[in-house]
Amino acid sequence: MKKALHPTMIRQDSSSLHDQHKPRAKNYFKVVSRKLAAVFTALLSGKRKKGSIDVNKMQKNNTRVKRISFSTSTYQSTVSDFSFEDICKATVNFSPENKIGEGGFGTVYKGRLKDGSLVAVKRAKKDKYDQGLPQQFKNEILTLSKIEHLNLVRLFGYLEHKDEQIIVVEYVGNGNLREHLDGVRGNGLEIAERLDIAIDVAHAITYLHTYTDPPIIHRDIKASNILITEKLRAKVADFGFARLATEDPTATHISTQVKGTAGYVDPEYTRTYQLTDKSDVYSFGVLLVELMTGRYPIESKKPVKERVTIRWAMKRLKEGEFVIAMDPKLRRSPASNMVVENVLKLAHQCLAPVRQSRPTMKKCVEVLWGIRKDYKDRVSSTTAASTSHCSANFPYRNAKSDRHLFGIQEGDSYGFISA
Ligand SMILES: Nc1ncnc2c1ncn2[C@@H]1O[C@H](COP(=O)(O)OP(=O)(O)OP(=O)(O)O)[C@@H](O)[C@H]1O
To answer: Where along the chain is ATP bound (predicted)?
Structure first.
């Protein structure tokens, strides 16, 4: 099991992250002109001033994808390129067989570059964006190009070619979190896996809020935007709604149009149009409830009292019946029950109606680390006790249940509480 990164370690770690991508960048993307590199360096370091070159304008008629690779944690960049033809080849002319998803922006395809590496190609809807590069697209490019983190989907390049607008990002090959919770992907997520995913997402948002300059508010944290790797770790995607937080360090919020997905949007933001990092904290609270209950934020087919999942789950928690809210797919055990209760308690804080009462994302990370530690301690003590019991009575342990981190969990059957 990979050790989670402390947010403060992320910068130092980014050079080794970069190393993983180096060969690809080296082999397949040439450095273009120094001028462009300088422009991108300025763009990435956030030092562009009024009157400097507008990269978006400059590239309006440019048909080359700009691939950005970060060589150090200080964001010195090199810019490389590949053509629309390369993208057509990579996706076999956007063949339906390579289609992996559809979103508000357009269609997503899986692509294989010349070097064999896999990418996700997001192709904008043509009729929708025939007026040129949409703001949502520009936001996504700008935001993604500035960030580098293990738990965030990386931008590899972007392209405008005639009426085509295309963005190329890291391919994350194991579907999204919602698909895993629905059981249409994978073998179902155990409680420890859900906890790891929650921590990965919390790391990613903490990074956006705390370690990017200026801070970034994601604005669309939801289960379908959490992509899952083969090792069941999470990467936060879709920065289409993201908007750079104000550069004014004294400002406490930015006023803006309400954007986001129903069920996840901070009610205070909806009411006041004031967006702060605490709006992401609220959406993260909804996501935590989703992870523990397996339910969608809005369950329109359920009885009225259960339709808004956070309201229903928080009521169960308040009345000491949190186990009723626990995803029926989760195995019950004292350790997993403890996780569900404590994660729901954290969700309760994240969902506070007033943003000042909500914790920061960094605080959420710390609380989740504590829950994971308690879980591990409890499971290993249960396992030790059961092992000594089993060695006397059952010399052959059942390796099948040894699926996750913590060995067999004979204690699972004890303390079972029926939902
Ligand atoms: N980088 C990626 N790697 C693998 N699959 C991806 C990637 N990006 C997106 N997908 C898949 O394509 C689907 C559509 O993605 P997209 O970001 O366009 O829309 P969405 O997040 O589902 O919806 P919305 O536009 O409302 O935010 C995702 O749900 C995911 O399953």
So the answer is: 126
Q: Is residue 136 in contact with ligand 1, taking CB distance under 6 Å?
A: no
Give the three-state DSSP class for 5: coil
Domain holding 141: CATH number? 3.30.200.20
Domain that includes residue 58, residue range:
18-170
Calculate how far, in angstroms, residue 356's C-alpha sits from the geometric centre of ligand 1.
Answer: 32
d(CA 110, CA 387): 46
Contact 197, 226 (CB under 8 A): yes
ipTM confidence score: 0.96
Q: How many domains does the chain have?
A: 2
Task: Determine whether 196 is an active site residue.
Answer: no
Q: Are residues 164 and 197 in the same domain?
A: no
Does the model's pTM come out above 0.95? Answer: no
How far the first Cα of the chain sits from its last, in Å, is 30
Q: Is 126 annotated as a binding residue?
A: yes
Tell me: the pLDDT tens digits for 93-132?
999 999 998 887 789 999 999 888 899 999 988 765 556 6
Q: Are residues 96 and 46 in the same domain?
A: yes
Helix (H) or strand (E) holding 123: strand 118-124
Neighbours of 202 (CB within 10 A): 29
Tell me the helix, strand and coil percentages in the chain, rounded to 5.
Answer: 45, 15, 40
